[in-house]
Amino acid sequence: MQDNFFKALTKAAAGNELTRQDVITLLGALPGDEETKLFDMADQVRKKHFGDEVHLRGIIEFSNYCRNDCHYCGLRRSNKDIERYRIPIEEIVETAKYAAQLGYGTIVLQSGEDSRYSGEDLAEIIRQVKKVGNFAVTICVGERSREDYELMKKAGADRYLLKHETADSGLFTQLRPGTTLKERIKGLTWLKELGYQVGSGNIVGLPGQTMETLADDILLLRALDVEMAGIGPFIPHQQTPLRDSKTGDLALTLKTLAVARLILPQTHLPATTAVGTLHPDGRKMALRCGANVIMPNLSPASYREKYQIYPEKAGSKENADESHEKITSLVKEMGRRISTGQGHSPKDKFKDER
């Protein structure tokens, strides 16, 4: 084990704040003993703060329309080969009823940045879903006005997921034409001010990304003091400008997740669908590296394959029953148990919601 790696890991074990160089050093953990030590420590931190509970958060992908033209996403507006859809509110409510029957504590309402929905439209969907069961509701619909965020919060939304994707402002604008990292961070700040439990996160392996950028991603998550962080690998889509780019490295993704766990001990970290797409046991690997959340796809089967951010998305060809059964079996195989609560943040400022 390299001396600088040992020192950084020892510093993390003592609960001391890690520097940017410490983070870069840990991200560079070598295969073998260093990776094993990093993953084991992340798993210990996860167990200390969250126990062996795995929180299931059921996703309903209710629209695949998007106004943006991001270079890495299959939902981009320039993709003319995708069959667009919007799930009627009645079907969204029926799906939420199914989630309630299965015992889900959280529903995630996710879509592209679909301008057809006003803030009030989104608020009404939230109200209808909240009537169905005792859910926490997470919203993931991209950048909106502060007024829209406020409308959704008043309608009952508990959490908002707005991934920053990359902390490199130049790379952000290059890959997301017409948008800026500054505006995205402003949105995250508004969400905090409005009392949401806030999620962000980044993509590992984006073309042009460096180890320094990846360290900055984790440090930005710390600075934002997020309640959830979605960290997943880049997977190229054939209908995007990055179609010929290299797929993100699974090992580096797991190391990024593990370092994030050390720096964000009380933050919910999902074992993302993308790691499950890269490897059949990807979600298990992530759960061993600090993750404590899985987000099964509960969308009706007729829509699943149309929400193609990247190709061959894990679970896209399954129905909701298959997705749920596979995830619950996975959790039990690992000797962990499925949480029966809503999975609110353990941070003291959210203690009234727990």
TrEMBL record:
A Pfam family: Radical_SAM
Keyword annotations: 4Fe-4S, Iron, Iron-sulfur, Metal-binding, S-adenosyl-L-methionine, Transferase
Record: residues binding [4Fe-4S] cluster: 66, 70, 73
Cofactor comment text: Binds 1 [4Fe-4S] cluster. The cluster is coordinated with 3 cysteines and an exchangeable S-adenosyl-L-methionine.
Biased composition regions of type Basic and acidic residues, renumbered to the chain: 345-354
UniProt keyword Lipoprotein, yes or no: no
GO MF annotations, alphabetized: 4 iron, 4 sulfur cluster binding; biotin synthase activity; metal ion binding
Keyword Lipoprotein: no
Cofactor(s), by name: [4Fe-4S] cluster; [2Fe-2S] cluster
SUPFAM superfamilies, alphabetized: Radical SAM enzymes
Domain (Radical SAM core) ranges: 52-274
List of residues binding S-adenosyl-L-methionine: 165, 176, 184
EC number: 2.8.1.6
GO terms for biological process, alphabetical: sulfur compound biosynthetic process; water-soluble vitamin biosynthetic process
NCBIfam families, per database record: rSAM_HydE
Name under which the protein is recorded: Iron-only hydrogenase maturation protein HydE
Organism of origin: Desulforamulus reducens (strain ATCC BAA-1160 / DSM 100696 / MI-1) (Desulfotomaculum reducens)
